[in-house]
Design brief:
Length: 360
């Protein structure tokens, strides 16, 4: 062509290609019939890959409601640009293309994030299928059906792979990876739900004291990824940030949701027992929050009924959803219960050894 009009100098393919058609009439630059024919014969979707569908499906990836770091990692996987052993071997950057963790296969992108036995263990515990689809179709299906769980698992599988290679003396057990993935999934769900509910005041990532004469209960539960034990904690503080009472322990269950509900119920009971008549209960689990506050669920868990009942006793109660970063004290105490195998304990003041960890 003779020249490109200045109005067309920054155009991209997606600006003149949509819904499977070229829109050449929007161009200001003159095109010869031969050039038009060459352009019209080119199909960007087919060139991008017949199974994924091309730019349209990649656009779906970027519209996922997850942090940019998760989407960028997924994009690297789909472009097969992840620096795996196979990737580095093809470029003369490594002497072997073998997976250094299982030593049985080439470390392609698909092997690294799905087919390696260590990766499959994590996906199995997250209930994500490792059905032998090709890389792009597997990504497309899982990211659409289970976005928060899938992107959390992907992120931590890649993280643990790098840790195993570059930090040989401090490898992570599978239980830790599963716990981290489940925690990330919970956080992604919370962020999405808080934004959907348009509650900007709850998006602060730090703890705020309650108003005068009001006490705040922070509840949380944690699951280490194995066994049938869930650890929980509920902490009560006043407007001066003074520690009033705490309860922590372990319940027999493999459901993190049961642990969250138990922590809420136990926190309310603890506040009632010490005579506090104006309380705010805060927690960071969207599922538990919805179960307690909404009535459009078929089966109602007995713990939910107990929580609803205690909220209608003769006192003033409030129930709010918060970010995980604003719930670090109860999270730390719940993990301490598991570490020390405490079946049940009530505290009048924080343990001295935990003051720094809880930032008190």
């Amino acid at each position: 062509m003779d020249y490109v009009h200045i109005s067309d100098s920054n155009l991209r393919i997606q600006d003149i290609w949509s819904v499977g058609k070229w829109h050449l009439d929007t161009l200001y630059s003159p095109l010869s019939q031969n050039l038009k024919g060459n352009i019209l014969s080119y199909n960007p979707d087919k060139q991008a890959g017949p199974k994924l569908g091309g730019a349209r499906e990649l656009a779906l990836l970027w519209r996922q409601l997850v942090p940019e770091k998760h989407k960028f990692l997924a994009w690297l996987c789909l472009k097969e640009a992840l620096p795996t052993a196979s990737f580095r071997f093809r470029r003369g950057m490594s002497s072997s293309d073998r997976c250094s963790r299982c030593l049985s296969s080439q470390e392609s992108v698909l092997h690294c994030i799905r087919d390696c036995p260590k990766a499959q263990l994590v996906w199995h515990r997250l209930d994500i299928s490792c059905h032998p689809l090709d890389l792009k179709n597997w990504f497309l299906y899982q990211s659409k059906e289970y976005p928060f769980k899938f992107f959390s698992g992907l992120w931590w599988i890649w993280r643990v792979r790098n840790n195993d290679i570059f930090n040989l003396h401090e490898t992570w057990p599978p239980e830790k990876v599963i716990c981290l993935a489940l925690t990330s999934e919970k956080e992604l769900r919370n962020i999405f739900e808080l934004q959907r509910m348009s509650l900007p005041s709850t998006l602060n990532g730090f703890w705020n004291p309650p108003s005068i004469c009001t006490f705040k209960i922070n509840c949380d539960a944690s699951y280490f990824g194995s066994g049938d034990s869930i650890d929980f904690a509920c902490v009560i503080r006043d407007c001066n940030e003074s520690w009033q009472r705490e309860c922590l322990g372990i319940i027999e269950s493999n459901s993190i949701l049961q642990g969250e509900l138990f922590a809420i119920w136990r926190g309310y009971l603890l506040a009632w027992d010490v005579g506090q008549g104006d309380v705010i209960c805060k927690m960071d689990c969207v599922e538990a929050f919805n179960l307690v506050t909404q009535d459009d669920f078929g089966f109602i868990d007995p713990l939910v009924l107990k929580i609803r009942d205690i909220m209608h006793w003769n006192w003033r109660v409030d129930f709010r959803l918060i970010m995980r970063d604003a719930n670090t004290v109860s999270d730390t105490m719940a993990k301490m219960a598991m570490k020390l195998q405490l079946s049940h304990m009530e505290l009048l003041s924080p343990w001295r050894s935990l003051r720094s960890a809880c930032a008190l």
